[in-house]
Amino acid sequence: MSARKIIIDTDPGQDDAVAILLALASPEEIDVLGITAVAGNVPLNLTSKNARIVCELAGKHDVKVYEGCDRPMGRPLVTAEHVHGKTGLDGPTLPDPVMPVQDQHGVDYIIETLRAHDAGTVTLCPLGPLTNIGTAFTKAPDIIEKVQEIVLMGGAYFEVGNITPAAEFNIYVDPQAADIVFKSGVPIVVMPLDVTHKALVTKPRNDAFRALNTDVGIAVAQMTDFFERFDKEKYGSEGAPLHDPCVTAYLIKPELFSGRHINVEIETQSELTMGMTVADWWGVTGRDANALFVGEVDADGFFSLLKERLARL
Question: Does residue 243 carry a catalytic annotation?
Answer without folding.
Answer: yes
